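Saturday, quiet lab. Running sequence design on the structure tokens for the scaffold JK sent over.
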């Protein structure tokens, strides 16, 4: 008889337990919800995790800065932003013009206070004749020598020393230069079909 009464009590309590089951599940979800929201708050607050690297920290800092600026400034239209950029550009241009005018005035005052020597004319462009030094490679012709001019320059891209040479004919009135001499020649008026140079001096005699 006792067993039958216990079974009846269990059967009577089973529907009640089933009715309380959703309430228990809801309570469990409510208990887990604060933990999840807390973890989400930690992620959105920008606190760097222990395993996050410097790159992640910088990204979070930039995101926070953008969010702060967006919250502090009112929303603007593209036309307003363009107008602001144009105004800033004009202000910078005005400042540059003012600075350049000051520099020009300063340079002008310096030139007036201390006049220097006149700038010498450039080679061949303003009346100054070219001067070259080379080696005599031929003196067979009368009053004429052939001079080789060697040049060496660094290549602009590959930085390799590029050597080249050119020959020219120079007038030697007294046949002073001989084969192998190092001479200095100066540009002059055309003296013949090929001669546009004149011997200035013999720097070193051939041995």
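Result came back. Writing it out in full:
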């Amino acid at each position: 008889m006792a067993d039958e009464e216990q079974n009846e009590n269990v059967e009577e309590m089973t529907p009640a337990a089933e009715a309380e089951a959703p309430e228990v599940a809801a309570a469990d979800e409510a208990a887990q919800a604060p933990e999840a929201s807390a973890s989400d708050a930690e992620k959105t607050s920008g606190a760097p995790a222990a395993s996050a690297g410097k790159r992640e920290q910088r990204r979070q800092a930039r995101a926070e800065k953008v969010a702060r600026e967006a919250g502090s400034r009112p929303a603007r239209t593209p036309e307003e932003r363009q107008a602001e950029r144009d105004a800033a550009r004009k202000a910078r241009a005005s400042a540059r013009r003012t600075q350049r005018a000051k520099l020009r005035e300063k340079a002008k005052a310096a030139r007036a206070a201390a006049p220097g020597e006149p700038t010498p004319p450039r080679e061949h462009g303003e009346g100054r004749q070219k001067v070259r030094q080379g080696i005599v490679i031929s003196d067979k012709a009368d009053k004429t020598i052939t001079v080789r001019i060697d040049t060496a320059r660094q290549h602009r891209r590959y930085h390799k020393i590029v050597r080249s040479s050119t020959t020219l004919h120079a007038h030697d009135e007294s046949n002073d230069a001989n084969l192998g001499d190092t001479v200095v020649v100066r540009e002059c008026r055309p003296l013949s079909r090929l001669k546009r140079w004149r011997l200035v001096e013999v720097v070193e005699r051939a041995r």
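Notes for JK: Strands lie at 131-138, 144-154, 161-171, 182-187, 195-204. Residues 14-22, 33-39, 45-50 have pLDDT under 50 and may be disordered. Ask whether to fix the surface positions before the next round.
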